[in-house]
Design a protein that fits this description.
Elements: E1 18-19, E2 29-36, E3 39-46, E4 53-56, H1 64-67, H2 76-81, E5 86-89, H3 112-126, E6 132-137, H4 140-150, E7 155-161, H5 166-170, H6 174-185, H7 189-194, H8 203-212, E8 221-224, H9 234-239, H10 251-267, E9 274-276, H11 285-288, H12 290-305
Parallel strand pairs: 1-2, 4-5, 4-6, 6-7, 7-8, 8-9
Antiparallel strand pairs: 2-3, 3-5
Helix pairs in contact: 3-4, 4-8
């Protein structure tokens, strides 16, 4: 298989693409957009209205991690399309099921700064209306935050769903962080053999980029944190070959402790942020609790429409 499960890795599924109109701000579109430099990136949008919601998926997750419905479950992408325009895109190296990425490959590993540059080029090429609301999962949260800090005039709200952050590194010892880096990527031996351009991110350099960027401006922000622990799950993931055998079987409890601290730090980034810790969810909150994620996006969109810089009264 092209992708292996690890912490901060989401599922991806198969789809197809077509040609991108010069400007599309309403109606359903799914296409590869020329972002310059001989490269194209896949973008899918539905619905109409403003602010536009732009979804930044997790590590190695294509847009279909959000756009493809699961039987018997509410689909966040479709739900959001019912009250505003929503777009999701594929970063390079994000497979679609067993198929290669719909976005042209780039040298790996990349950094959040590389992903920000790509998203900025995509926004311009697709003529997405700014400012927009960013919704991010997992590693996508590093990209979304750096984008908002680099281009503050283009982002006016954010929802972070169990996202990675530099707070995780800060809450661990150097020895723990060395193990955590291995855990973040999972065992990619087979995936790299089948698909060498698969997405890999340099977390340390990405965190350095976050630290060097200006502070996040005031905006409506919701932080959703998974509350199902990783500690009891890791031994089986290691035994099943999903994670490398050199991960200590009790390391999930280290991750749980550090992530709790890191998520609280995210919720303190701006005044009036909402931090939801009772989510009854694992890492993929948009799949475990899609209504919660959709309602959080709706609340941020409503706050933006009302001209508010915070969710607090």
């Amino acid at each position: 298989m092209l992708r292996r499960h690890a912490w901060f890795v989401a599922l991806a599924f198969a789809a197809s693409s077509a040609a991108m109109p010069a400007r599309a701000q309403s109606g359903d579109t799914a296409s590869r957009v020329d972002i310059g430099g001989g490269r194209k990136m896949y973008l899918e949008c539905r619905g109409m209205g403003s602010p536009v919601v732009v979804i930044v998926a997790g590590m190695r997750a294509s847009a279909e991690d959000w756009t493809k419905p699961e039987p018997g479950k509410l689909n966040v992408f479709s739900e959001v399309a019912g009250f505003t325009r929503v777009c999701a895109y594929d970063r390079p190296g994000t497979p679609v099921g067993e198929e290669p990425s719909r976005s042209d490959p780039v040298p790996q590993p990349v950094t959040a700064g590389d992903a920000v540059a790509d998203l900025h080029a995509l926004v311009a090429a697709a003529r997405l209306v700014t400012p927009f609301v960013l919704v991010a999962h997992s590693y996508g949260g590093v990209v979304a935050r750096l984008y908002a800090m680099t281009y503050p005039a283009e982002v006016n709200g954010m929802v972070l769903a169990d996202t990675l952050s530099e707070g995780l590194q800060a809450a661990e010892t150097p020895e723990e962080w060395a193990t955590q880096r291995v855990l973040l990527n999972g065992d990619l031996t087979e995936a790299l053999r089948l698909y060498p351009p698969i997405e890999r991110a340099d977390a340390d350099r990405s965190f350095d980029q976050i630290s060097a960027a200006p502070p996040l401006k005031p905006m409506p922000l919701v932080v959703l944190s998974a509350d199902r622990p990783w500690g009891p799950l890791l031994p089986k993931l290691i035994a099943d070959g999903v994670l490398p055998t050199n991960i200590p079987p009790d390391f999930g409890y280290v991750t749980d402790r550090a992530q709790k601290v890191a998520q609280a730090r995210l919720a303190a980034l701006v005044a009036g942020a909402r931090h939801v810790t009772n989510t009854n969810s694992g890492h993929e909150i948009h799949k475990d609790q899609p209504q919660l994620v959709a309602d959080s996006i709706r609340d941020v969109v409503a706050a933006v429409r009302n001209g508010r810089a915070s969710l607090a009264p």
